[in-house]
Specification:
single chain, 256 residues, mainly beta, outer membrane lipoprotein receptor (LolB), chain A, 5 helices, 46% strand, globular
Length: 256
């Protein structure tokens, strides 16, 4: 599961998309610190979560359930548990390496970098969204372009522009983050500065001892009536996770 989303997503997705370790970040009003707080809230030092994914298309809708684990900035595992026909499908991200397991083929496949921006499990989230890829922190420059208020919090609008020569897909990203680090919105622009997709937080709730974007929705701009929603139904943060969880062996033959 995090884009910021997903934390895939959380999403899956994982990625995308905050604050126990970031007191006072709102007062600092530093754009990079705010984005970092959003990542920290999404994943913490480690996390274990249960997420329902709804993939909506005009005329049909799919519902899937998955378990997700993250550790640090570069480890994430998402495994689908329902429905039966999708159960066992899993994605493991270790740094820049992404592995997927298809139980029907009983095969682990390493995804090339060119496919990481592709659709994950037929949803509107990408493989990068699964672990909330940190490109927006490392490959972009940030500045606050506006402020507002919602739910008793200051909301910062942040523009992220690629650094010169950065190997990134998006021409620009815009993020809205509360002063306590809760991610409210992330908008993705192409190289011509046209909106390609947008992720919004539909509900902020108390989960795992923190305020958290428990319901997030990704919508592609060019496809009306199409969206994917991630609903985090359970989560624990800063919990010990066995080292074997983030291994190829556990991806293919789960021990948990």
């Amino acid at each position: 599961m995090k884009g910021l989303i997903v934390r895939i997503a959380a999403a899956v997705v994982l990625g995308a998309a905050i604050v126990t370790g970031s007191p006072g970040v709102g007062m600092a009003a530093d754009a990079t610190a705010l984005i970092r707080a959003a990542f920290d809230n999404w994943r913490a030092n480690s996390s274990e979560s249960t997420v329902t994914m709804t993939i909506h298309r005009p005329g049909w809708e799919r519902h899937l359930t998955m378990k997700g684990w993250t550790q640090g900035h570069d480890k994430a595992l998402a495994r689908f548990t329902a429905p039966a026909k999708d159960a066992g499908n899993a994605t493991l991200k270790l740094g820049k390496t992404t592995l997927i397991f298809n139980p029907k083929l009983n095969q682990v496949i390493k995804l090339p970098a060119s496919m990481l921006a592709q659709s994950w499990m037929g949803s509107d989230f990408s493989y990068n969204d699964l672990s909330k890829a940190e490109d927006i922190l490392t490959e972009y420059s940030h500045k606050i372009i506006g402020t507002g208020h919602a739910g008793g919090h200051t909301v910062y609008s942040i523009e992220a522009l690629p650094k010169p020569g950065a190997p990134v897909v998006w021409g620009k990203q815009q993020v809205k983050v509360r002063d306590d680090g809760v991610l409210l919105q992330e908008t993705f622009f192409d190289q011509d500065m046209r909106v390609v997709r947008q992720m919004t937080t539909d509900k902020v709730g108390r989960i795992g001892g923190r305020d958290y974007p428990v319901v997030v929705t990704m919508r592609p701009a060019a496809k009306k009536g199409q969206w994917t929603r991630l609903d985090t139904t359970a989560a624990r943060f800063n919990v010990p996770i066995p080292a074997y969880v983030f291994t190829r062996s556990n991806l293919q033959n789960p021990r948990n």
